[in-house]
Amino acid sequence: MSTPRPGLPTAATVLAFDCGTRRIGVAVGNTLTRTAEPLATIEAAARDARFAAIATLVAAWTPAQLVVGLPVHADGEAHAMTAHATRFARELAGRFHLPVACVDERYTTEEARAVLASAPRRTPRSAATRDSVAAQRILERYFDEGPVAVPAEAPR
Fold first, then answer.
1. What is the three-class DSSP state of 25?
2. 3.30.420.140, 3.40.350.10, 3.40.50.2300, 3.10.129.10: which CATH number matches 13-145?
3. Is-contact 150 102, C-beta < 8 A?
4. What secondary structure letter does DSSP report for 91?
5. Which letter does DSSP use for residue 24 in this model?
6. Biggest alpha carbon–alpha carbon distance for the chain
7. Distance from chain centroid for Cα 106
8. Who's near 95: CB < 8 A, 6+ residues apart?
9. Euclidean distance between CA atoms 139 and 154, whole angstroms
10. Residue 131 pLDDT more than 60?
11. SS3 114
């Protein structure tokens, strides 16, 4: 097993976000066990309501690190949602005064769909569930591969 990310305590809680325009999937994990699980999906339409819901999760879980999925094209090039996620990551850092890392989220939604397709029938398969499972995949990727650099010029 590899070591936790530099600068984090040996056993620290991490929250990860799959930031979309309609919903934000959230996952929680631990740097010691390097495991993640879906936590919630925030479906508030208003920006302030979204951040209030995030504040509740941050207060409950007291994470040492936040992770945001960074959407890019299949070839790694930035697009409009890259800029959206980058702004979201900066706002998280500013509001909660926690370190925020970005992780390449390519194909995490497709991976989440596959996970849910193979789950027992009683497992919800809604878009909200998919988003929290995508956040779980983002956090697992952070534990396995580490953060990525945020593109300097992400299109708007």
1. strand
2. 3.30.420.140
3. yes
4. H
5. E
6. 43
7. 12
8. 51, 54, 55
9. 22
10. yes
11. helix
At 78 the three-state DSSP class reads coil
| One-letter amino acid of 66 | L
Query: Are the C-beta atoms of 85 and 102 separated by less than 8 Å?
Result: yes
State the CB neighbour count (10 A cutoff) for residue 48: 8
Q: How far apart are CA 77 and CA 124, in angstroms?
A: 33
State the Cα–Cα distance between residues 61 and 70, nearest whole angstrom.
23
Q: Which of 135, 129, 105 is nearest to 117 (CA)?
A: 129
Query: Is the Cα torsion angle 12, 105, 133, 88 positive or negative in sign?
Result: positive
Rounded to two decimals, the pTM is: 0.80
Nearest Cα residue to 27 out of 120, 141, 106: 141
For all residues of the chain together, what is the average pLDDT?
82
pLDDT above 90 covers a percentage of the chain that reads 49
Nearest to 140 by CA among 115, 97, 103: 103
Give the H or E element holding residue 67: strand 65-70
pLDDT tens digits, one per residue of 33-73: 999 999 999 998 888 999 999 999 999 999 999 999 998 87
